[in-house]
Each structure stands twice: as C-alpha cells, then as structure tokens.
Amino acid sequence: MKANSFLRRFLTPAWFTVIAVALVSMRASAAEPLRIICFGAHPDDCEIKAGGTAALFAERGHKVKFVSVSNGDIGHWREAGGPLAQRRLAEVKKTAQILGIETEVLDIHDGEVMPTLENRRMIVRLIREWQADIVMSHRPNDYHPDHRYSAILVQDAAYMVTVPFFCPDVPPLKSNPAFFFFQDDFQKPTPFQADVVVNTDSVLEKKLQAMAALESQFYEGGANGSINLVPSEPDKQQARRQTVRERFSSRFAAWAKAYRSQLRDWYGAERADQVKSAEAFEICEYGRRPDKAELRRLFPFAD
C-alpha cells in the first residue's frame, strides 16, 4: 500500500508528460541520420576509396558529402586549366547522383594543395557546416603531395572544429567527430590498419558506374594516359570501358581478400567468406576514438 501511495503521489499527469516527451526525444535522437564528410585531394579520390560505403549510408537515409580539395585542373595528358576543372566537376556531380550523395570541389589548383592557415580554416568550416559525425580522408604518408597535405589539413581540423574562437563565424561542434583514414598500401613509416571493413557487394554496381563516370581519369587515363588509350572504333571503345570496369572489380575484390579476417569480425565467418568487394578505414587518433560498439553504430552495415 505504501508503494502504491508513493506512485500515486509522484507519477502525476505532469510527470507522465515529461516521461513521454523524453521518450519521444530519445526515439527522434535514435532516428537522427548520421552525417559523413569525406575529403579527397582530387575529383576521384573519395569515389574510389569510399564510394561503396557512401552509397550504403545514402541507401539507409544518412547524409554524405564528398569534398575534392583540389579542382584537378592538371590531371589529364591532353587538356588542363579551367576546361578540365569544369569537366572533372561535371564528372563528380554525375557520380554523386549515382551514389545518392552531395559533392563539392574546392577552387585550389591541382598539385598546389598546401597546409596553410587559410586552408585549415576552410576545412574546419566545411566540417562544422556539415555537422559531421564521421570525417574521412587520406593518410599523411602517401605518394602524392596533394594527398599528404589534404590529410594534414583534415588532421589539423580534428581538434579545432570544437574550439569556439577558431573560425568564430561558424558555430563549433559540441563534440569531436570520429576521423578515419582511407585505405592505402604504403608501409613507411607505418602501414594502414583496417579498423573498419565494409562489405560493398550490394552497391558494387553503383560504384562501378561511378568509376565509369570519371571518364577523364580512367577511360582516358588521367595525367599519365595518352591518345593510345582512346580508340576511335566503337567496338574498341566498348572493350576499353570493359577493361576499366574489370580492373576496378579486381581492385575492390583485392581489398576484400586483404581484409578477410576483419570482415569475419564484422560479419561472421560464413557471410564474410562470400564477400567479393570491400572498403576499409583506419581510425585517426586525433579525433574521437570510438570503441567497437560505437563503430558498429557509426557503420551500421553488418546487420
């Protein structure tokens, strides 16, 4: 009787209202879409390294943005400057439609990305404006200076996004996002460590279509291509496109093979052993350091 009296006294209609509002708020918070922003040095880097994962996020209602830090205006053997930059912008806009994401290309010349204060501020503003939960980019040990310096810019933003009086024109983030590196094969000073591996089989066709849309870089060969890659006969053009497709299929399959043990941790042995394509990411220690439970919340694909 005393317990019932206690409940009648304190569980008033007002309290029930408070509890109901809290439960609704919790449900709304749980349903809040994740926000992911990826930085690649050129208009093709994010698409190669994270296109499948981006498509998976988009299919589940999460919000993804790819940012090309340079405009790619010297990335071709035949053309350069403004016309090439516009062409590559059009290409990544097409890939964004295929993947179901947003895209932006910054106005920095290809080959001239530098870790300046001005560029750091620009990256910080982009992360804040996107209200990012996840940020991705290259690792800082990479063959291309634009890759290295894009990585440094993103790393330098990792703490500054929370500092109120750095770029005070854009509100700081309340908590540091989780930062991740794209996969690469460089071994020095440290090799890539796959903390997250994503099965991309269900979106492989989308990703291969996105690769085909980046025609200046892959069908025509980009900066190291030549006229010899671009046949004039329609049947040979089709064969060339098929060759590009098969090379990417093999590349993405090689990633699945390389990280098979990690796939088993994420998906279980039986399912993982059937995976034909994958993408892998490494946690950057400069951002928030999610544990395994939070990683599964941030990458909700192993259900």
Write the layout of secondary structure elements.
Blueprint (H helix, E strand, L loop, with lengths): L1 H9 L2 H19 L3 E6 L4 H15 L3 E6 L12 H19 L2 E4 L11 H14 L3 E4 L7 H16 L17 E5 L13 E4 L4 H10 L20 H25 L1 H8 L1 H4 L5 E6 L8 H7 L5
Parallel strand pairs: 1-2, 1-4, 2-3, 4-5
Antiparallel strand pairs: 5-7, 6-7
Helix pairs in contact: 3-4, 3-7, 4-7, 5-6, 7-8
Number of helices: 11
CATH class (first level) name:
Alpha Beta
Structural class: alpha/beta
Alpha carbon gyration radius = 22 Å
Mean pLDDT: 91
Give the helix proportion (percent range): 40-55%
Beta-strand content estimate: 5-15%
Order of helices and strands: HHEHEHEHEHEEHHHHEH
What is the total number of structural domains?
1
Look at the structure and name the CATH superfamily: LmbE-like
Q: Terminal Cα separation, in Å?
A: 46 Å
The CATH topology name reads Rossmann fold
Order of strands across the widest beta sheet? Answer: 3-2-1-4-5-7-6
What general outline do the C-alpha atoms trace?
Answer: globular
Give a count of the beta strands, DSSP E runs of length 2 or more: 7
The CATH architecture is 3-Layer(aba) Sandwich
Q: Which regions have little confidence, pLDDT < 50, spanning 5+ residues? A: 13-29
